[in-house]
Design brief:
Elements: E1 4-8, H1 13-18, E2 24-30, H2 40-57, E3 60-66, H3 69-77, E4 83-86, H4 88-96, E5 99-104, E6 108-109, E7 111-116, E8 131-134, H5 140-151, H6 156-159, E9 162-165, H7 169-177, E10 183-187, H8 188-197, E11 200-205, E12 209-210, E13 213-217, H9 222-233, H10 237-242, E14 254-255, H11 262-265, E15 278-280, H12 283-291, E16 296-298, H13 302-307, E17 314-315, E18 348-351, H14 359-369, E19 375-378, H15 381-387
Length: 393
């Protein structure tokens, strides 16, 4: 997915005199599908925000826009950026993997399941066998909705007769309106607007999650973190007055805690805790196997591997297009088994980005189906390895 890289160098004279030695801070902003991140409005809004942060902190803030939320979720697990600004599921994941929550803008996000009046569906349980329309898989609404289904023990592709994902929330609602779906998932505000024009009902709602939020990499030095926190939570009126913020009011930002993300951070697409035909191992067990000469295969994308990886691990990317679920369709993916030993009796370890990264799970499943007898699935992957203090490179 194409992304736009912008450098924010506008440091006010006042801030420059207070902090003469500016350090570089890599910041990433990601947006929901409904916000159309490629528009000038979205870009201006967050470009001016990072210009303000640079002016308020005296830091060189280098801004990256990321429209692919799956990619952004991956990067939060490997500490690819110093500052993360994004939806609740992005920040919630970041908080689990080495980031500290800082602040959030006012408002909350909530997803709902919406049914047409003609469907006669009045509850989520009553939607069994119906056609479901959803926003993109990596959108917050779909993230919350699938999490609620998992919590109820419902496997989506078996529960619904058809599931279609659309690029935007509005498109999923149009499918509902035109009779192409019986039930749709959408952001609550959009769903309520739809109900003003159409006959239907909300049959299930998720819990609320914070709106757009900010998190900082925990490993940054304290001085840098304090400057960034102050920019969001103790803004200087003089710096604000000299900044041209487009559509954002930093004076209304509120502090956040880890507990604010307990709900959303546990709803991710977590991999199963069992895998028939494989040995699921911990970081300690993986380290012991490596000592004995068993190779670890890193199934993450190449740029993640290049950023940092388990020392000695070999890159064998799993190109993932299928859904993150048991019973995924391997025909939609690409994984070249030629990158691992051809001896089916040779032991192999697959790893990626932790319990919610499905690439190593899918690679393990693929290897098992291909006849490999000694497959080790390192479910905790790179985050667990790094957290244990084992060497990386």
């Amino acid at each position: 997915m194409r992304s736009l890289l912008v450098s924010a160098f506008a440091v006010a004279a006042l801030a420059a005199s207070a902090y003469p030695a500016a350090a570089a801070v890599k910041a990433s902003v990601s947006g929901e599908a409904r916000e159309e991140i490629s528009t000038a409005f979205f870009v201006d809004r967050y470009k001016t925000l990072t210009d303000y942060v640079a002016a308020a902190s005296g830091l060189d803030v280098r801004l990256h826009f990321e429209r692919d939320l799956s990619r952004e979720l991956q990067r939060t697990r490997s500490g690819g950026y110093d500052l993360i600004i994004g939806p609740a599921h992005v920040v919630g994941t970041a908080v689990r993997y080495g980031y500290e929550p800082v602040a959030r803008f006012p408002g909350e996000e909530q997803a709902v399941f919406l049914a047409t009046e003609a469907s006669n569906v009045t509850s989520l349980e009553g939607a069994k066998g119906m056609r479901l329309a959803m926003p993109p898989e990596d959108s917050l609404a779909t993230y919350l909705a699938r999490g609620e289904l998992n919590a109820k023990g419902l496997q989506a592709k078996q529960f619904f007769s058809q599931i279609r994902e659309f690029r935007y929330h509005e498109a999923a609602l149009l499918a509902l309106e035109f009779g192409q779906a019986d039930v749709a998932v959408a952001d609550r505000r959009l769903a309520e607007e739809w109900l003003k024009r159409n006959k239907g009902r909300i049959i299930h709602e998720t819990k609320a999650a914070p709106g757009m939020s900010v998190a900082v990499l925990a490993s940054l030095d304290r001085t840098t973190k304090d400057k960034l926190r102050a920019a969001f939570l103790a803004p200087s009126p003089k710096v604000i007055a000299s900044s041209q913020l487009a559509g954002l009011d930093v004076t209304k930002m509120m502090p956040i805690e880890r507990a604010d993300y307990d709900y959303v951070s546990t709803l991710g697409y977590f991999t199963p805790r069992v895998l028939e035909g494989a040995n699921i191992i911990t970081a300690d067990e993986a380290a012991e196997l490596v000592k004995r000469g068993v190779p670890i295969y890193d199934t993450r994308v190449k740029d993640e591997y290049d950023d940092r990886h388990i020392k000695g691990a070999r890159s064998v990317p799993y190109a993932e297009k299928s859904h993150k679920e048991v019973g995924f369709d391997p025909a939609k993916d690409k994984f070249d088994l030629a990158g691992i030993p051809q001896d089916k009796n040779a032991p192999v370890i697959f790893a990626c980005n932790g319990p919610e990264c499905w690439k190593s799970y899918k690679a393990s499943v693929t290897a098992i189906k291909a006849g490999y007898k000694h497959v080790y699935w390192f479910r905790g992957g790179f985050p667990e390895w790094k957290g244990k203090g084992y060497p990386t490179e």
